[in-house]
Amino acid sequence: MGTKTQPQLAKENERRIRANDKEFNAQFKYHNNYIKTSKYSLFTFLPFNLLEQFQRLANFYFLCLLVLQLIPAISSLTPVTTAIPLIGVLTLTAVKDAYDDIQRHLSDSQVNNRKSKTLRNGKLVEAKWSEVQVGDVIRLDNNQFVAADTLLLSTSEPNGLCFIETAELDGETNLKAKQCLTETIELGDRHDSLWNFNGEIICERPNNLLNKFDGTLIWRSQRFALDNEKILLRGCVLRNTQWCYGVVVFAGVDTKLMQNSGKTQFKSTGVDRLLNFIIIGIVLFLVSICALFAIGCAVWEGLIGQHFQLYLPWERIIPKDYIPTGATVIGLLVFFSYAIVLNTVVPISLYVSVEVIRFVQSFLINWDEEMYYATTNTYAKARTTTLNEELGQIQYIFSDKTGTLTQNIMTFNKCSINGRSYGDVIDLRTGELIEITEQQTIFQNSNTNNRPSPAGGAAIAPPAAAPPIILVHTAEVHAKKSALVVTSSSSSSGEAQVSSRPDFEHSAPPLDAGEKRLGLKHVRYSASSRSQEDDPGGLSPRMGLSPSIGNDERRSSGGFKRSGAGFMQRQLSRTSSCDKALQTVDFSANPHYESDFRWYDRTLLDAVRSDEEHSHVFFRLLALCHTVMAETVDGKLEYQAQSPDEAALVAAARNFGFVFRTRTPNSITIEVMGQLEEYELLNILDFNNVRKRMSVILRRGDSMVLYCKGADNVIYDRLHSGQEDMKARTQDHLNKFAGEGLRTLALAERRLTEQYYNDWRSRQQEAALSMDSREQKLNEIYEEIESEMQLVGVTAIEDKLQDGVPKSIANLQNAGIKIWVLTGDKQETAINIGYSCQLLTDELADVFIVDGNSVEEVEKQLRQFKESIKIYNRFRPGGFDPFDRLNSDSNMDPLSVTMTQTSAFMQESNLPPTPPPPPAISVVTFSAECNDLFGDEKRSEGGGTASIVVDESTGFALVVNGHSLVHCLSPELETKFLDIASQCKAVICCRVTPLQKALVVELIKRAKKAVTLAIGDGANDVSMIKAAHIGVGISGQEGLQAVLSSDYSIAQFRYLERLLLVHGRWSYYRMCKFLRYFFYKNFAFTLCHCWYSLFCGFSAQTVFDPMFISVYNLFYTSLPVLALGVFEQDVSDKNSVDFPRLYTPGLKSELFNIREFIYSVLHGAFTSLVLFLIPYGVYKDGVSQNGFIVSDHMTLGAVVATILIVDNTAQISLYTSYWTVVNHVTIWGSLVWYFVLDYFYNYVIGGPYVGSLTQAMKDLTFWVTMLITVMALVAPVLAYKFYLLDVHPSLSDKIRQRSLKKIHSRASSNVRRTASSRRGRRSVRSGYAFAHQEGFGRLITSGKIMHKLPQDFAFPLGLGTKKTQALHNNLNSADGSSKSNNASGQHMVNNNTNLRQNQNQNHSSMADITADGRGTGGEDGRGSVSTDDMSPRAPCQDLDTINL
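The structure assignment produced for this chain is given below.
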């Protein structure tokens, strides 16, 4: 007894599968491949759906009321008043649930009915996916989805390789390689051999780890280890492989895709949760009132009512023998009677109205043309109708990066070859470096048509022509040389000539000290040119940049004064007079060129075509050192790459004439300038996250070479000595490229001898076969040959952002929303994209990087970051920042703002005073306080209770690596991590798994009680989307898994801005206004019964006609409030985007909360009191002019009801800010409808109140009473509204009052991915880019943790070394302004911002300051600081002293 069978034990501990043996596998009862995501069937729908609906408190409450109304002894209202609305709500909800479930059934059916080729009795037959069983051998063809998790047996490719795309799993569109066991390759595609395959697989139980699989194959009495490289997961697509066979290991819900999908959680809005709480409070209030009235009724019956039984007889069930007992029973019955009468405080029509409003709002989202993406013909879609107002309360956004923020499209942007930089376009006449951010740049002359010059060259513009309009996104003024040089001929002719010159260190004309000191400047300008007076002295590279917003000009060292905006626009206008300056290079001479490839620097193509040696080596390396696969589709050569980065590099080489044609396992063929070259492929030393590089060893003829590409710091450490000058120049270019947010790779080569290679090869094979420390031995062997290399150059590619991403992120941040990016990308890539999309900016005080490998390291880093924040806030409580002034000044010009940022470093003695910098503090000074940082966070310097507050305009950013995030999410560090992260303006988590994404979202939901939104486009984002309060799916290039799991779907990230700031804010605003008015009108209506009870002996007698009570919420007041909830808006959609601060009330739940609810209740109670008492006082003992008595109950009820309807109409008219035709029709139509229905009901049907209202309206008393009552109710509301408008106006009030005056913040200005966000920021040293996983060669399964970035600082507030400070002291002395300010030589070092304002925005690299190794400090151009004295890292990673 109690013993378990072998199958039971196996099921608990391991999974045993035998190929092609159904009987053996059946005993374990594994899941089949059938997928079911639907909730109901035809037979279970009605009972299950009703059970689910009655679990909602409101529905159950109304069901209880309906039961009470069926008891005649206690009900004074007909059951119809509750039954009809309740049935309507249940039916409406059931129809919606049925529709949603039908969609799930259709989706399940589509997946389950996909076809898969399966071996049955030795024959290949087509079977549905749902019929595939564990242990089946299935065949996959090229471009076919994998039906289930499968062990790869054989493939069509040599060495058992196959290639898959995992977009549905991890969101990556790049290809990955899988390789079967060498022992099973022999099975091939022979069906008899595959059918006879009887291997037994022992593996792990189903789990959600995408990158891990442990198992063993027992076959032919041998055991073979199985790992993740031999498994094809469900959801993958087979690519570049004709066919492959595999045996099913996990099926259906056991597959890793389904294990990662997460459970669908029931989502409700914050308004819903508040409403539920309020409903409970109202029910308790109702019970209290009913109990009070029940006691009052019992007392009244015991003292007074017993004497009037002749007129008011007691019911038969009431005992009459003992009066107290009878009175008590009457009181008990009256308790339930009042519960029925007063139930209209929360009528079921509230829930009907809420559902209708949400339903219509969803259609408004679906119909919004502003969120229509024409490229894919995709509209935004609200996939759920219950969460609209939650869009207006989002506090945290969790976003994927690849495919969500970026297009996942890489473009070859710039490069450096043999110390020369290529890719820049410059006008040497003006010193302007023009940054191209559009694929095609358009020049348009606004007033004149250019005519061809006689020489056939550039166009001739008439001298009097107005400056042309330039439709370019960015422009930079660069007082340095670059690749494309525009020189001007005689000024009278107006002709412009283009000359090309390589970017040598000596190619630029001499620059004086002022120009060199100026370095790189960036400005932003509008498209339309303002008319400016001409520059009398000709154009100069110097520019005047204002140090503050109020100052439009500054004095340069040469004594010039320039208007910043006008001067820049004049320069730009003259630059644009030559169209050739920005024409793309023509590659059409190359038959394999790509028409969409854009390159603007002609000098590189000229170097290639002139057989310049270094450029040939550079592109030959790109064409050979990769793992890209080539195939010909419809006669066109196409590439399939493991990463978009590799594809971009190989495509660049292709366009420049080095075409990768084909590869075999042992050779690579390229076409160089029309000539085929075949190389023998000896080895691929593949990429992984630890090596950060890949190499190929090739032989052609008698020559043998190793080509290597990888992270610049890794390559630099492996170069031979004697190339210091080239390394320094290339390092300058690397810093410049990384500063622009480009993804960089360094390239190197090494010539090998036959003897050396043969010796190395034998040792490499020995290490590969070693059973002990194989990985370590291989790495040592690789290190040996990847050394003593010659530097070739650097590539810089750009991961294209989606349109409008920087502006959207800036606007959302300015609205008060915190944005976290959760990505599987490398740290360097994520940081670069963070800067590109304005998530990270130079206004940040610092960017913290958490990359510890242990709990202790992570805790130490978090402690240091906490200390940084504390010190920063201690010495900068106000936070002087240009953006503070921008946000507070409504007349700010984007140009002035940019100038302010750019010139913050270049302050002179005659400029307006700025806040004095805090004293320099050594690390040692405050390091002793570390132990107190997490102990008492509220203790301030003076012993007060001030909490740490970060300046929102500056703030910090946090970057966390995936392996460190594991420790951050642990219970012991969770609180500390949250404490740091919550004080950061942006957080980026790199190398995170799908499950970690969901855990981060759950952590914020649980710990911060914040409303979260997750947005992604791949199946790897599904868990995150389901975990967040709101899930948004982007219908992009990575399948529809994210969209199918989402609550809302959009086509581009930029539409999220409109979804939240417009539709979300409007939905929240409308719902809150609707609820406030709804509770007001219902309390005003219901509490009239309470006041009347004081005059009717608490008998539960109603004031109004029972029919009026039944249709009050259904016919008389429903349509106006519905129109309010659907169409109301305080400001237009444009202003909602332009003024993101309008979103803030939703973050704080200011528009509807307990306070607002109590206000609505008190307002309703006051209204009901006035409504009842004034008519009661008028009509009590009243007599009409004709002598008729009008003091009857029915007349009073009809008069009060009519005044109530009129007051409702007046109040909602005051509530409405935005009038449409629908509002007019519903509001005034409902007033007319009341009189029509009252007449119809009383005269046509014959109601009990027939004639009451008609007779009352014939008397002047009725009209005067109504006028006085309505005025008494409306006057206080109007007075309060005018008081708020004049004394405490809201932002929306100000916008309306000032006729939509433009008070633009930084987010509403046209933030683009310009050089300000790229050149002017501090950058990590390396912006290298490479594939995420191992490559296509012999797959190297090594460590998955990235090396830390080169960091030698002891504290995160890195500000630059003393050497860097000395450099800037020299700069200051060159400026001539340091005599009065720079006593210590350190005052210009900006606090904690890594010299972002001075170093990076005045020179993009050290080469901009030092030419030919000379400093720019002295007047003769020589300084005491050379490039050798400078740290090769970015300044954010150097620290000797903290200057705050």
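Interim note for the steering committee: The longest strand covers residues 406-417. The first helix runs from residue 6 to 13.
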